[in-house]
Amino acid sequence: MPDSDHTTRSSKSPNRWHHFLELAVSSSGASGGALWKIEDSKPSLFTQHQLGDLPLDEVHEQWPGHVECLDSVIKTSQSKSLEAQFEQANGSQALRLFLLPISSGTSVELIVELFLPQEKAVSLDQVEASVRQLLLWASPTSGGQSDSASIEFATWLSQIYSHLDLQETCYAITNETKTWSNWDRVSLLIHNGRKYEIKSVSGIDVLDPRSTTVTSLERVSNSLSDAITPIQSTAEIPLPELTEYQTRIQAKQVAVVPLVGNAGASSGQPVGLLVFDQFDSDTNQNRTLDDLAIAARHISIALEHALQFSDLKKNPFQKLSDKIFSQRFAKATLGLLFLLGFLAFLSFYQTELIISGTGYLEPEHQQDVFAISNGLIQTLHVSQGEKVNQGDKLLTLRSPELEFEANRLTGELATVRQQRSDLEAIRTDPRRASELQQSANELAAREKELLTVAANLESQIALLKQQSEELILLSPISGEIVTWNLKTLLAEDRPVTRTDRLLSVARLSGDWKARLHIDYRDTGPVTQAIEQGSAKLTFLSADALETSKPGKITEVSPQLETDSINGTTLTIYAHVDRESIPDVRPGTSIQYRIECGQTPIGYVWFRRLIDRAQSWWVLR
């Protein structure tokens, strides 16, 4: 603080300096403060505030470093801060000490000492700026003339601190701030729960909650509820909400200044909001945004005092009533009651657990015809929809390997037979036998060998003939060919491999069944309902979506199956009344619905999550 700014306090009454100290403590959010008078470079206590009944000068010498810190401020005329730990009856407390000198010429005449809580987020420069404004009011200028700006600030400050009634304080804040700031209109809104409620508008005694002014102010305030620093519509990048509000009220300039709590539970929390409106083009006389920010700190303190006083005036029943019906508490209570009610609803309200999915209709008597060996399609004897009897030819296959092997064996058999014929000719002609020099025994042995080889070849040829006959596929039952597009599917010379399904034969006039694919995650409730006999099946077929049809579950697959279309599923078969599906075709898709019995609605809605949580708990 420059030495030339202030002179001695001697021309001012002690009461005024004590009031100055009270304002300094309040405006800075300090726990207490003291004013030291400096005579012959020695400090003596002038007055103290909120530091108890024991004079500070009787105990401060017991504080390590405190006397030295005072001497340092006296010698350097510079502000100083330090941290200290104070022992109290209810425990220790960490405080920050701010010492601010008040000088006359080159010497320090007074030192303002403020005790701020450790958690208070305020800097030495902020405290010094606030005290400087108060000091202008408490001390005359060096020329002996009053500083008009300081008088205006002090007058405004005394007015906003002059009331404890909440409504009177709000009225004083808006009207006195309007006069001091030179803005055309000042509005004050108080933070209530998550919303801002308008309390006072300068120049208006009675507020109409339905008026355009009130609704516009509350709308822009709630849209800027997260603001922590002053905002002005003339900023380089103005906020859209502020620009919209300025256009709506046709103002030349708008400023919004947040009011932040300074003490107790509200420290650092929003207390209220000041909205400044300027309707004239001449804004040169308006207080700047920095001035308004300094003033907002004092307004926050005055507003907090009024709110605390208003709360003290209420009896316990009023406080409880206000708490119950306050917006934040009411919302929290309603939210808790809704949550408890919702949980009770999920746990106790019973509804039908319904499992749905897709399936297919097929005749009860249907058999597939498979390829029994690798080969090529030679002849297709039937067409789709043709009626056949058991044992009728359906398809003829050919095997190039069998044909090759049969031709080889036939050739070898012909060779052996030729050798036997030659041997017989030799035996009947002695002259040729003597030329070959072979005895009768040798010829007999050779003939026996050829007979064995021939018999073996004939046996192999017979086996190949039997295998070739098996390539003619016969109908396993009497019925109708139900495989679609046979001529394309089983075109001539198309290769097939063993176990390939080639076509199907079904007895369409007999009983029918539904093949259902149950998602593996739903197998638990479905199988349990089937075991208890409470499972009820209905389905809709693709050719008659308007009418549901009943079914009776008859068989459950013992294991899960996986395919590329349905994924991992459990296959279940159900009997279907033929009269309910007169025109259905094999393979018709259906949408099934299995009612598994009554269960809490919470499980019906969240069974996937519940099952996953149970699995995690078991496997943890």
Features:
6-stranded antiparallel barrel; Beta-Lactamase; disordered N terminus; 30% strand; alpha+beta; 16 helices; 620 residues; single chain
What does this structure look like?
This protein is of the alpha+beta class and 620 residues long. It has five domains: 1-146, 2-Layer Sandwich (Beta-Lactamase), CATH 3.30.450.40; 159-313, GAF domain (Beta-Lactamase); 316-341; 354-363 and 510-619, Efflux pump adaptor protein, beta barrel domain (Elongation Factor Tu (Ef-tu), domain 3), CATH 2.40.30; 368-502, no CATH class. It has helices spanning 14-28, 66-76, 124-138, 148-160, 166-181, 212-223, 240-249, 289-312, 316-325, 327-348, 400-427, 430-436, 440-470, 486-489, 523-532, 601-619; strands spanning 32-39, 42-49, 80-88, 91-104, 107-117, 185-192, 195-201, 231-232, 253-260, 270-278, 350-363, 366-370, 375-380, 387-388, 393-398, 472-474, 479-481, 495-496, 501-506, 512-519, 536-541, 544-563, 567-576, 589-600. α1 (14-28) packs antiparallel against α3 and α11 packs antiparallel against α13. It is elongated. It starts with 13 loop residues before the first helix and ends with a helix. Mean pLDDT is 82; it is low at 1-12 and 140-147.
